[in-house]
């Protein structure tokens, strides 16, 4: 069964059918998502502490665009395109580093300052009409939000405080040491699945106690009866208190009376997630970066506020990378394959009137954001 474009967004949640399967593999739909969602979205770049000294930089790519985030000697953070203004050569190829002096293009040695301004170009003195000030690298909009640096390719995008009202306060309340976080490690994994398939999997608890042993392990570390999924207009949370009777977590003994951080996740439209696992003493970032209609980079970042990584934090990171993560990835891949079946087009959201811990109302909300962005429907439409 399928529906018209106009009627899908008007469904009663408790009776709603999912987005048609083509939304997860159609090339034209993906190209529309690129242009109408991601090119004007706020993308997590790094924690502000990753740019702790002058010349420190992080390079981020989205589709065929590459952006440099860098702190200058005055302490300001800049974003600018990763491209020389002479012949288009890419300037920096490492993901992270410290550029103590000028940024030098490896092709013809055009040199740029830490704010993207051109400082020198060989033989430019021989060109009478050459004006060095006219060849600054075009800036990319950046914003600090919740201790992190975000960038947006649209200079006219709505600022994050307006787009995500009260979200920063929610992050800081649940992750009080946000400003002290330091990067432990970052891992990119390419998954043969649409970015929305991966997001769908992360924002529902229906499968927690049903899909695999590591999800059952996670459910045992929280008070699953209090698992709560809440959405605002452009952001959402899913959280639960820690199970205070737990004796171990991630294979490590824990004292439930000490640092038993709750399970907390927050998503910022369209693809940024910050999370904290119970007892983990660390924070995770989970970014879904689309490559094409059926391939996505999963970027797992792990951060700690401690100078020395606690044993339970290392165990939690290893467990995520080697146990829970692969279990979820297998589900993502299997779903992507199934969406091509001639025997499937739309499924039924399992949404109850109580919006309980196993209800899929967050999935519907996320799909509505996608649908409305693609079809030009006002986000406030209900």
From TrEMBL:
The keyword Transmembrane helix does not apply. GO terms for molecular function: 2 iron, 2 sulfur cluster binding; iron ion binding; oxidoreductase activity. Residues 43-134 form the Rieske domain. Keywords: 2Fe-2S, Iron, Iron-sulfur, Metal-binding, Oxidoreductase. InterPro entries: Rieske_2Fe-2S, Rieske_2Fe-2S_sf, Ring_hydroxy_dOase_asu_C_dom, Rng_hydr_dOase-A. Gene3D superfamilies: Naphthalene 1,2-dioxygenase Alpha Subunit, Chain A, domain 1, Rieske [2Fe-2S] iron-sulphur domain. It holds the Pfam family Rieske. The keyword Aminoacyl-tRNA synthetase does not apply. Its cofactor is Fe cation. It comes from the Bacteria. PANTHER family: CHOLINE MONOOXYGENASE, CHLOROPLASTIC. This is (2Fe-2S)-binding protein.
């Amino acid at each position: 069964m399928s529906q018209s474009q106009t009627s899908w967004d008007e469904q009663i949640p408790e009776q709603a059918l999912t987005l048609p399967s083509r939304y997860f593999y159609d090339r034209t739909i993906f190209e529309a998502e690129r242009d109408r969602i991601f090119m004007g979205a706020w993308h997590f770049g790094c924690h502000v502490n990753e740019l702790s000294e002058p010349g420190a930089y992080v390079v981020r790519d989205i589709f065929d665009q590459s952006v440099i985030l860098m702190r200058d000697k005055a302490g300001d953070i800049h974003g600018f395109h990763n491209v020389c203004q002479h012949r288009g050569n890419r300037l920096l190829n490492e993901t992270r580093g410290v550029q103590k002096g000028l940024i030098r293009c490896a092709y013809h040695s055009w040199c740029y300052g830490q704010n993207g301004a051109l400082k020198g170009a060989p033989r430019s003195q021989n060109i009478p009409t050459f004006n060095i000030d006219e060849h600054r690298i075009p800036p990319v909009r950046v914003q600090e939000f919740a201790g992190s640096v975000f960038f947006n390719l649209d200079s006219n995008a709505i600022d994050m405080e307006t787009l995500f009202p009260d979200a920063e306060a929610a992050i800081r309340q649940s992750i009080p040491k946000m400003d002290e976080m330091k990067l432990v490690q970052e891992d990119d994994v390419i998954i043969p699945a649409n970015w929305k398939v991966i997001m769908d999997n992360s924002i529902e608890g229906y499968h927690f106690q049903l899909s695999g042993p590591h999800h059952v392990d996670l459910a045992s570390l929280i008070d699953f009866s209090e698992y709560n999924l809440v959405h605002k207009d452009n952001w959402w949370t899913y959280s639960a208190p820690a199970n205070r009777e737990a004796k171990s977590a991630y294979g490590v003994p824990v004292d439930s009376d000490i640092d038993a951080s709750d399970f907390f996740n927050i998503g910022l439209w369209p693809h940024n997630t910050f999370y904290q696992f119970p007892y983990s003493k660390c924070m995770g970032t989970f970014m879904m970066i689309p490559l094409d209609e059926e391939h996505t980079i999963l970027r797992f970042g792990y951060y700690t506020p401690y100078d020395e990584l606690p044993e339970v934090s290392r165990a939690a990171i290893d467990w995520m990378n080697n146990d829970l993560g692969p279990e979820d990835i297998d589900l993502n891949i299997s779903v992507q394959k199934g969406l091509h079946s001639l025997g499937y087009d739309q499924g039924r959201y399992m949404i109850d009137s109580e919006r309980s811990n196993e209800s899929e109302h967050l999935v519907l909300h996320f799909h509505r954001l996608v649908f409305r962005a693609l079809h030009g429907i006002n986000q406030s439409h209900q």
